[in-house]
Amino acid sequence: MTSIRPNRAVRLRDESRYVIIREFPQTDHIRALVLELPGFGDLLTSNIFVLGKGPITLIDTGPKFPNSLETVRSQLNGHGFDFPDIERIILTHGHIDHFGMASLMEKAAGHPIPIHLHRDDIWRTTREYIKEGLWSEEVMDFTRSAGMPEFAIDRMKRRSAFFKHLCDPIDGAIPMEDGEIFSGEGFSLEVIHTPGHSPGSCCLYETESKILFTGDHIIRHITPNPIMEVRKSLLSDPDYQSLRSYENSLARVEDLDVRYAFSGHGEFIDDVKGLISRYRHHHEQRKRQIHEAIRSRSRSIYDLAEELFPGIPESEIFLAVSEVHSHLEVLMNNGQAEVAQPGPPALFQAVGHTSHL
Description:
The chain is α/β, with parallel strands linked by helices.
């Protein structure tokens, strides 16, 4: 039987305040590395997980901030490892705060390291995409359709250009599939494709310890964003919708026998079913809010985002707009909303009544 050590608190500086999070339970073959994550809203930390007794497997790598690599090295050394001990890297999804240091770690290891990622997110890690500054004409078209003002679009473009400095491209990421198994001394991981936060998001289930590594699919202290996807031509499912996929993915992991969930940010989770129930309540409530808001008059996505998220920081405007868009997609799927005017900006109006939700 796997023995799990008791918890201690981890104290992190988050901008002007200190944040206390519980230390992750550690087994003989699973350890957590916890990094500070400035500039990423309320995500608090970037978590990297180390599996095995040597050679080791890493789950995610964190973004490339100054001194981040040395911070990871120091924590690895504390567990008796170093970068040359890394046998493989598995990425839960293709966002920069999860893959940013993967190539840098491979260089530090001094030998090739296979980097595994679901095929629907591989394009996000490529040299071409990062060179563009994580921006595209498809994104620009969407911002105009959503009715975003120029100042908000400019803020998004600047933030995207900044983000490209927090990652290095990955050359030759290996596509991994749902149901694939990764094994090492003392662990066996099953890949569970859980699209929603991104099309290629995956959870990893370790069967012996009953630990579920969730990336950004499940996070204890916030409700993850099912981020809308504009580059659908690059996906295996051209009809992909983020919130619909996310809700289906929650159902996939809900019935697993999970002792703890280890997410990519913040603390570990010891009540997965309860947290998923709260997520469902949140999204149902958001659908009702949006449906009610478009009953009296047609509204643009940005207009709705301003109403639902008053005072939101400029850095998080796209997430707010994305959330509104994702919920509108579900309402339209259900026959409860429709496009009143294609725009730009596109305007949406309600069909039916809130009681039908």
